[in-house]
Design goal:
Elements (H helix, E strand, L loop, with lengths): L3 E6 L2 E6 L7 H4 L2 E5 L6 E5 H7 L1 H4 L7 E3 L6 H13 L25 H18 L3 H17 L6 H17 L6 H11 L1 H4 L3 H9 L4 H6 L5
Parallel strand pairs: 2-4, 3-5
Antiparallel strand pairs: 1-2, 3-4
Helix pairs in contact: 5-6, 5-7
Amino acid sequence: MAPLSFKSNGSMLLCSAVGYSNSDPEHSSEIFTLIATDSNVPFKIHESFLRPVSPTVATMCDGERTIHFKEDVLESTLFAFVHWAHTKDYPDRRPTAGDTQSTSEWDSGNDNFATHVLQWHLTVYMFGGRYDIRGLQDLAKVKLFDHLQSIEELTEKYLGRAVIDLLDRSFMVLPESDPILPHLASYASLNIEYLKLYKKRFGRLLGVADGALARRLFPIHQ
């Protein structure tokens, strides 16, 4: 697959694979326009890239082949989706606001770094689940757990908070049957002594979604 190019034309962001001519099948198909909830920037993607990976999204188009996402779909999430549709990958770091033409240059020493990376992959995972994009969802899950495994010291205050925030959002928003939750509960169980260091946050976490995580961590008491 050729590398991905994002070409800005005023307010339009045209996403296409470098190296394909207009005579290629990928470039001769109809073009869909995807517009996020939080932005008016259109993402253009050829139907031949979109329909195979997400018939659900493709069939949402109106007469103009324009898809307006109405359920809190961020511009950065569409960036990840379109990037993945072309390359079967997406950046490990969320693009900064208003800068979807390049990946973010987050400093890994920044206190917000862990939170943003974990929440980024979780957001992409949720988008993949909502619109039945299994390949994107599977990749986001791998990236999420790869990053979790790379965290060596949960005693670092911002890292512990980032993980608790991730668990909080996951168990609050995802349905209890979601297949990622047992894996997150297992991760929490293995690191429970570290998570307990954040007493107030951990206490609130155990009460999220009527104790959804607590029931997995302490099944013997249920």
